[in-house]
Amino acid sequence: MKKENVSCKDVMSHICDSLGEDLNSPKCINIKDHLENCPNCQKYFDSVDSTIKFYKKYNVELDNDGHERLLSVLGLKDE
Amino acid sequence: MIQTSNGISEEQLIENAINGDRASLAQLVKNYEQTVYNFSFKICRNKERAEHTMQETFLSMVKSLKQFSGNSKLSTWLYTIVSNHCLMLARSQKKYDYVNLENDEGLIDDKNVVDWKYSPEKLAENSELKNLLDEAIEKLPHDYRVVFLLRDVEGLSTNETAEIVNLSVPAIKSRLHRARAFLRNELDKKLHV
Questions:
Q1: Which residue of A has its CA nearest to B181?
Q2: Interchain CB distance below 8 Å, A67 and B41
Q3: How many domains would you assign to chain B?
Q4: Structural domain of residue A31, as residue ranges?
């Protein structure tokens, strides 16, 4: 397979495009090769990945009072 | 088919609820209240507004359950109601100081990429970090915010996200790309070592 030269900017853009997607196309293989050998792009990848994880971990719980208020609004308190 | 904890399928619960069974309706509400509240909070970034949105969402569900065709999942339908309600709320508040992401030039700077001083594991104990996450995502226009939350945070597919926000798949991909790059840059300003 012919190797295509990719720049750091290409790789970073691709990370934002395709994180979580299937990465088996020839272009993606070149991107992965670059990523494995470029500390700068690895840091960028980690920071995008962390951004998503930060927002995934930031959750709130509905407390019992909120649950009761909801059932009351819906007229389902006795159910 | 989705089975609930008491062994009755979701489809059956919906049918029972449409036929006036209040216990089935209450069970549907209980099954989804945490998901709806949490997703509402993630869009609104405010607990009071999240609770209001959750209540309005379930009121809409109760009113329109007969119209639920079953062609899509109930969860997808609820995400749609939450997204639309939050959009109306945002418009009524006339707060339009969102960042403009129509042009993505400059969103990616390949120089000076550095490590971050906090990992996501540190989030629970750091309220300053939570404020930073709130402030960053509040700058995103509504449709970018919802796409990022549905696709990356809630883990829905690109097609499901497109159905909920009524945009094409390429439009979803473009918004997701820009939202990820923008949020990453906002966090980077405060988190770089």
A1: A16
A2: no
A3: 2
A4: 8-73
B14 and B87 assigned to the same domain: yes
Among A41, A56, A60, beta carbon nearest to B41: A60
A78 in a domain, yes or no? no
Contact B13, B24 (CB under 8 A): yes
Residue B64, token pair as written in the block: 């329109």
Q: How far does the CA of residue B21 sit from the closest CA of chain A (Å)?
A: 10
Residue of B nearest to A56 (CA): B153
Tell me what pLDDT residue A2 has.
Answer: 43
Chosen from A17, A46, A58, A71 to mutate, greatest number of chain B CBs within 10 A: A58
- CATH number of the domain within which B23 lies: 1.10.1740.10
Domain that includes residue B33, residue range: 10-92
Give the number of domains in chain A: 1
| B50 in contact with A, Cβ within 8 Å | yes
Question: Which pLDDT score is estimated for B82?
Answer: 95
Does A68 fall in a domain? yes
Residues B87 and B140 in one domain: no
CB contact under 8 A, B42 and A20: no
Q: What is the total residue count of chain A?
A: 79
Say if residues B147 and B180 touch (Cβ distance below 8 Å): no
> Running along chain B, 193 residues long, what does each successive block of 10 average in pLDDT?
67 92 94 97 91 96 84 88 87 70 75 82 82 93 93 93 93 92 92 79
Q: Where are the alpha helices (DSSP H) in chain B?
A: 10-18, 22-44, 47-64, 74-92, 127-138, 142-148, 158-165, 169-191
B41 vs B114: CA distance, rounded Å: 31
Q: What is the pLDDT along chain A (79 residues), one digit of tens a residue?
A: 345 567 777 777 777 666 666 566 777 777 888 888 888 888 988 999 999 999 999 999 999 999 999 999 999 987 7
Type of residue found at B185: N
